[in-house]
Design goal:
With about 140 residues, the protein is mostly helical. Helices cover about 75% and strands about 0% of the residues. The protein contains 6 helices and no strands.
Length: about 140
Amino acid sequence: MSDADLEEIRKGRLVQLQQQQQQQQNHQAGGGSPAGSQDEERKQQEAEARASILSQILQPEAADRLGRIRLVKGSRATDVENRLIMLARSGQLRAKVTEDQLKELLGAVAEKSERDGTSGGKIVVSRRKGGWDDDDDDLLDL
């Protein structure tokens, strides 16, 4: 390869890199970005807004408890967060929510989900009514 060929390859690569950089800048500025990334950005903004509201209305202990609940049962934590945000927006919260108040709210959400039948955590055990069969006595003789 001659020096001219190498120089031509370098110029082509430089142009390609400049185009990629320009596309990235357009994507960051919001121009021409696909609908999927807009949805992701919107979801991220909503999550940040929720986190901001919750940090303003929850004491640290209550926020820790809600985080632990989210690890175990995310749907229950989301229900509690929605209720807290609704109370905050309607002006019914006068002070930051304590851990005890959060426990009461969790109890209310649990009762509501049990009444609606949406808890999904209920376990039903059905037992045999007959007790011991004659065949079961043979197993005890071993």
